[in-house]
Amino acid sequence: xxxxxxxxMFASLPAVYEAADATGDLARLLGVFEALFxxxxxxxxxRLTLPGIESGxxxxxxxxxxxxxxxxxxxxxxxxxxxxxxAWLAFEPHALFTxxxxxxxxxxxxxxxxxxxxxENLRRLIALCFESVHEVHIDDRPxxxxxxxxxxxxxxxxxxxxxxxxxKVDVHTGPPAHAPGTPDDAAAFxxxxxxxxxxxxxxxxxxxxxxxLSPQAGWPTAKVPGRQ
Length: 228
Known about the structure:
Strand content: 5-15%
Structural class: alpha+beta
Strand order of the largest sheet: 1-2-3
Number of strands: 3
Order of helices and strands: HHHHHHHEEHE
Radius of gyration: 29 Å
Number of helices: 8
Largest sheet: 3 strands, mixed
């Protein structure tokens, strides 16, 4: 049975108010608030039906479920809310990522903060942010001298002392989530990757990045030059 507008709130009042409302003015006044707070059930097509604050309260848990509720995967954070959530979780380079990528990042980044500033944190964060990456090697003690069987002349040899607070990152990546890949995709990927490393690394450190691209990615197979 459908309720008259105002009946739900009016029924919650003490009986003395119900007996005193001979004109129905109180019921009509309460009907205004009922339309604001609750979903209307009167079913009158001539009246404007608003969703009501009650339905918004029920939807609040979905705002904080980036990958969906365990019982209902369709109830998840709206795309328009994902950048705010990522910023709220202190993921600074969120503007470079799509809402779908941010869902994965937001769902997994909080446990990584216990390793903040470490090599393990950077490795896990890169794997979390980029599904196409299949290997990350971080050398936080790069050798600067000539080592037989390891050194490449002109690349990792130098006639000087080692650099303090310096590390190297080698990232091996496969095809991107979208296809086909283009040189522009490679440049965008490197931009995102550098933003993630800059976000995760200690502020006083410098690094060199080398990206090894899979031939199947459709990108050039040469290494992306590292910058310090």
